[in-house]
Every structure is written in C-alpha cells, then in structure tokens.
Write a structure and sequence with these properties.
Chain lengths: 409, 300
C-alpha cells in the first residue's frame, strides 16, 4: 500500500515535469484518486485506460480508505482536486450538494456506454442529488445472512429452510447457541462506526422506517431483538466493538453459527471456512413484509473544476464498459442488474453470489444527505446506548430521531 | 553598514540571529497552527471553507454547543480518569522496574534495553496486539486471569462499559512504563553512592534510605517525568482507535479521541478545534504549575 503511494507521488512529480517539457504537444493529463490496489479494479482499469489512450496521460494516486473524504475536501478547497475520485457512497451527497462534483446528467443521456436504467435503484439513488446525476456507481455490495449448514443439521434444523423472519432467526440462534463449545448463535456488528449504521438501518427500513423516521415501532422492535441477542448471549458481547470483518472471522472459525455480512467475505470464506456454508436473504419482520438491505461500496465522480471533463468522462465510460470483468477478475459486484455473473467453479460461492444479486434489488442507500455522518452518528449512539442498557430501545431511538430532526431541519 | 555587519558576525546581532532562527521555526511550525486552531474554534467552519482563513465569527457558540452535548461531562471525566490512572500506573510500574534493574544483577542492562521494545513499537501495532489480548471470547488476558482463578467467567474488556476505559488504560500503562523506567534509571544512577554508604554507616535501613535519599534526590526527575507523562497521555490516540474506538456508547471516549471524531468523522471542524483549545488550556495550566514548582525547588 505504501509503495504504491510513493509510486503515485513519483508518478505525479514525473507527470508535472513531463507536463512542462511536452507543453507543445499539449497532452491531456487526468488525475484519478482511488483506494484500490493492484488486486482491485480501480488501479488496473486506470492503467489500462492510459495504455489504450496514448493522447491521455493518467496519473493514479492511491488513497487510504479513511483519508478519502478529508483529502478530497482539503484538495478541493486549495484548488488541487483530482479530475476523478472514487468516493464512498454515503458521502457522495455531501460533495454533490455543495456543487463540487460535475453534473453528468446530460453526458450520460448522450453516452453509448453508460445507461441510467442498467443500474440497481440503490446505487443509482446514491449518485443522484436533486434529480441530477453526479457520478457513476463503481461497484456495489449489500448484506445477507450466512449460515453454517453443518451446525443446522447437528441441532436438528433444516439447512434447506433457513430463517426467513426475525423471530425465526432469533429461534434459530437460540437453538444453535452452544456456550460449552464456544459457539454463538449469530454474529453481526453493532460497532459505534458507520458499520453499525450499515447493519442496523435495513432493519428499520423493512418496517417502513428509515433514517428520517428512525423511531418507528418496527425499528424499536428491531433494536429490542438486537438487545435480546446480546442479553441472552446469543451473540458475543464484543459485537459492540467488533467490525463486520472480525465478526465474520468468528463464523469462519466455527465460533458462530450465523453471521450477517456481505459479499466481500466470499473469497476469504471459501478459503477458511471448512464446512458447508450458505447464504440466505436478510430475514424480514414477518412473512410478506417488504425487504430491504444495506448498500455499500464506492462511486466514481468528476470534480467540477476538472480541466479535462471530456477526457475524464471518457475514462468513466471505459471503466463502465469493463463492468463484466469486475467480479471474475477482482471479486466485486458491479452495480448493474444486466451483468451475467459467470460461474467460478466453487459451487458454494456461486450459490452465494446468486443470493447477493437477489438481495441487491432491495438494497437502499444511506441517505443520500449532505450531513450523513452526523445522522449516522445519532443512529450509532442510539444502538450503543440501548445495547449497553443505558436507555431503553424506545428512548434511545426517540433521542436519535430528535437529533436527526434537528439535522434535517 | 560595517557596524551592522560586525554585529551580525560577532556581537548582539549574532546572538539575536541565534535566538531568532529557532524562534521563527517554533512560530511557523507550532505557533501558527496553534493560533489557527484557536481562531477556528470561534468560527463557523464549513468543510469547503477549510482552505480560507476568513470565515464568519460565531463567538463562543461552538463551545456552548459542545458543553450542551450530553456526552461532554462524561467524556471529560473519562479523560481525567485516563490521565490519572495512566500516569500513576506508568510511573509506579516504571519506578519498580527501575529499582529492580538498579540492583545490577548479571544481564540487567541487557534486559533493561529489551524492555524498551514496548516503547519503540507504533501505537497502532500495540493497539492491535492488545485488541487481541483483551478480546472477550478468546483473549489471552482472560485466559491468564481464569487460570489464576481471578475471574470465573470471561470479562469483555472492550465491550463492557465498566471496563472499556480500563482496557485502554492497561494497554497504555504497558506502553509507557518502559519509558518511565529508563528516565528513572538515569535519575537513580546520578545519585552519588557515598550518600548511601554514609547512611548505612549511620544505621539507616533500606526503607529509610529510600525515603530519605532516593526519593528526595529524584524529585526533579519525577517532576519532569510526570509532566511528560501528562503530555504523552493527552496525546494518546492510537490505542483508542485500535482497541475500543471510544465505545461502547462513549464509555471509553476521551477528549483527544472525541476531537478527532468530530473533525474527521463528522466533519465538524470547529467543534473539534474547540475541544483542542480546552485541552491546550489544561496542559498550559499543568505546565505553569510544573515550572513554578521546580523553580521553588532550585531556591530551596
């Protein structure tokens, strides 16, 4: 990671020197900021685009996940923003609403490659602000319920009938829970970070709630169920401080019988999990209730003050044209419904991807809202104060709703 | 002209240059950011006005909002607990180790050097290691305590609001004890040996020698160490990020982590700056106290 950052800096310096030397030829230089390394699509696609277009010079800079937003804000306010950036989807609205990103609506309407209607509704909503499109979804992900079919059989549960409703899920967790063998019924993440919001929000959305009405009866019921899982020790108390990646690690090692997590786990799970693991859709409040799930991953966007918006848009068109390779080559899911996922030869993985593709239809964005991080913080505080017993789920969510109301104005 | 030149080469001008260069260095690298921070805490900072210095003034509004937040006083309380417990723990453990190695058994200097490993490790690495050690279900720390029959069930150090702050304190004591040990060892070795010989001849026991010679002779070292400890502990951020992230439910949140969270997670730079200013005031009060107390010492 560090070497490529240095490489990026060197490239940047080199490009600046070249830019002066070759001024007569007037080459177009576009800068791309993205968190991807050589095993992920961003870096590879940027490199390929540069090779395929000798008249366009591509400068790629790898930025660490935690720094993307603050680096971008700093760069923009000092007039040194890149042409293209890959930004985490809940933060997209912050930039779009401040007029920092280029409005791509007309370009996309004219494009032969990028078609608005190809995209899943969730990712498309995350790049949209005030009816205009300010970016292109780079990839997407969501969460669903992984379960250990071997443990299901051992405890007399039918692995072909995984839990479909919240109550069935809690029942299954009770049956699967086995403290003597160090097995928890379920693992998830209620961490006081964006991950906690990411995991909880779908539960509220399934009951008709959302970030703008987080204290519905259904959301209170959802948080009460989370509290039950922790109070009865059906999930590890460390759920409160552990992220999704570490929580899923306990599932892979056989210390949790179910886990709520996303497709980014597939590669590691197929290597580490030595049992029959499967995936099912997120359980719903009751049979027939509307589905929902979280929506993650990054969007491409062009900064408004880019000097070469045409070249930058051409790059985005190239990236989109390569969407079919995103899963086979780099294991990520394109945000488009019209992409066929080829089999990988790993039956468990192929079956899981099908479930995730189905789940993606119900994935909803966080926000979009320019103050998303403050809204998210209010939700995290509610989750944590309810789960640690400092407030009842109802009081905690009422408090969050009041805070969010103040933010929404 | 010549007088100016000669003054610059060998005279008052030269002296002023010698003072001026480090002073300019200090002002540019510490003073300006400090002032910028203080100014920012009185302004309405929009995330896209970060690059400009001229922003609307809001007076004490940022401070008022900050103090009105329900988590303000608990977090200040945690900061005080964290400071007191970390400094006391680091100092006592460091002093015990320093006295232990002072006995100069074979290999003592080697072992003392090895203890420094904890100090040179980056905080995030230490945090990651302690994160595993303190893990509730499979943590080594719980295993050891269970085997020693100190606890019967697992303690969820990071996730139980009663213990989360203490889990960071434990890691911080481990991290800082060796630095304390080295500074105290230096102080110990500078005490002249004949003082002890004379005391021994007068029939003073080991404890009396410790209270009447070692401690008084170490007073200035201890003072410096504790003020350094205050600064290092107030700067301790990595361990919080790696072990508890201030959770659960702010039970392990402290001022320095909160300032970062407000600035770089919620993009509320003005409030983040306001917390930093409060912290600067506390550190300044502490250093004034320290400077005054050591000045008295020299006279006495």
């Amino acid at each position: 990671m560090k070497t490529s950052a240095i490489l990026g800096a060197a490239l940047y310096a080199g490009a600046a020197a070249l830019g002066m030397a070759a001024h007569a030829a007037d080459p177009v230089t576009i800068t791309i900021w993205c968190q991807d390394d050589e095993r992920q699509p961003g870096l590879n696609l940027a490199k390929e685009f540069g090779e395929k277009n000798p008249d366009i010079k591509v400068v790629y800079r790898q930025i660490h996940f935690d720094d993307v937003t603050s680096e971008a804000m700093r760069a923009y306010s000092t007039g040194q923003a890149p042409d293209i950036i890959a930004i985490d989807n809940p933060e997209h609205a912050l930039f779009a609403s401040h007029g920092v990103f280029l409005d791509l609506t007309d370009r996309i309407a004219k494009s032969d490659v990028i078609h608005k209607e190809d995209y899943f509704p969730g990712p498309l909503a995350s790049v949209t602000w005030d009816g205009k499109i300010y970016g292109v979804p780079k990839a997407t992900n969501t969460i669903a319920l992984y379960y250990n079919a071997d443990m299901f059989k051992a405890k007399g549960l039918d692995p072909d009938k995984p839990p479909q409703t919240w109550d069935e899920m809690v029942d299954a967790a009770r049956k699967l829970n086995d403290p003597d063998k160090n097995v928890y019924g379920i693992a998830f993440s209620a961490k006081a970070s964006e991950e906690g919001t990411f995991q909880f929000l779908p539960w509220a959305q399934m009951t008709g709630g959302g970030f703008d009405k987080i204290n519905t009866d259904g959301a209170v019921r959802a948080l009460t169920i989370w509290k039950t899982l922790l109070d009865e020790k059906l999930a590890s108390p460390d759920t409160l401080t552990r992220g999704q990646w570490d929580s899923t690690g306990t599932f892979n090692s056989g210390n949790a019988a179910m886990v709520i997590s996303g497709p980014w786990e597939l590669n590691r799970m197929s290597q580490e999990a030595k049992f029959d693991w499967r995936v099912t859709l997120m359980p719903v409040p009751e049979v027939g209730a509307p589905r929902s799930s979280a929506m993650g991953d990054f969007n491409w966007a062009i900064f408004k003050n880019s000097k070469h918006p045409d070249a930058a848009f051409k790059a985005l068109e190239y990236f989109v044209s390569q969407d079919p390779r995103v899963f086979p080559d780099w294991g990520q899911l394109a945000a488009r419904a019209n992409i066929e996922i080829p089999p990988t030869g790993d039956a468990k993985k192929d079956a899981a991807v099908k479930v995730f593709m189905e789940q993606l239809k119900y994935a909803q964005p966080r926000g979009p809202h320019p103050d998303w991080m403050k809204i998210s913080k209010a939700i995290q505080d509610a989750i944590q104060s309810a789960l640690t017993g400092q407030a009842t789920p109802k009081d905690a969510l009422d408090q969050a709703a009041a805070t969010i109301q103040g933010i929404l104005g | 002209m010549r007088r100016l030149y000669s003054s610059l080469v060998d005279g008052r001008g030269f002296d002023l240059c010698l003072i001026g260069i480090p002073l300019a260095f200090l002002i540019v690298l510490s003073g300006v950011p400090l002032i910028y921070n203080v100014v920012m805490s009185f302004q309405a900072v929009d995330m896209f006005s970060l690059g400009s210095f001229i922003r609307p003034w809001v007076g004490f509004e940022n401070y008022r909002q900050l103090i009105a937040q329900p988590e303000f006083w608990p977090i200040m309380g945690h900061t005080a607990t964290f400071l007191a417990a970390s400094i006391a723990g680091q100092f006592l453990l460091g002093f015990a180790l320093a006295l232990f190695f002072w006995t100069n058994f074979p290999g003592a200097s080697w072992l003392r050097g090895l203890f420094l490993v904890s100090w040179v490790m980056p905080g995030l690495v230490v945090g990651a290691v302690w994160n595993w050690l303190l893990s509730g279900d499979f943590g080594v720390f719980n295993f050891v305590l269970r085997e020693l029959h100190v606890i019967s069930g697992n303690v969820f150090w990071r996730s139980d609001p009663t213990f989360s702050l203490w889990s960071v304190i434990i890691a911080n004591i481990w991290l800082g004890a060796s630095f304390n040990m080295i500074l105290l060892s230096v102080g110990l070795s500078s005490i002249p040996g004949d003082l002890y010989e004379a005391a021994e001849l007068d029939g003073a026991g080991a404890l009396t020698r410790f209270w009447t010679i070692t401690l008084p002779m170490m007073r200035s070292t201890i003072g410096a160490l504790i003020s350094l400890g205050l600064i290092f502990t107030l700067q301790q951020f990595d361990l919080f990020a790696a072990i508890t992230a201030g959770g659960p439910s702010n039970s392990s949140n402290v001022a320095q982590y909160w300032a970062w969270d407000l600035s770089f997670k919620q993009y509320d730079f003005a409030k983040g700056a306001a917390i930093s200013v409060i912290m600067i005031v506390v550190v300044m009060l502490a250093s004034v106290y320290y400077v005054r107390s050591t000045r008295h010492e020299v006279r006495g």
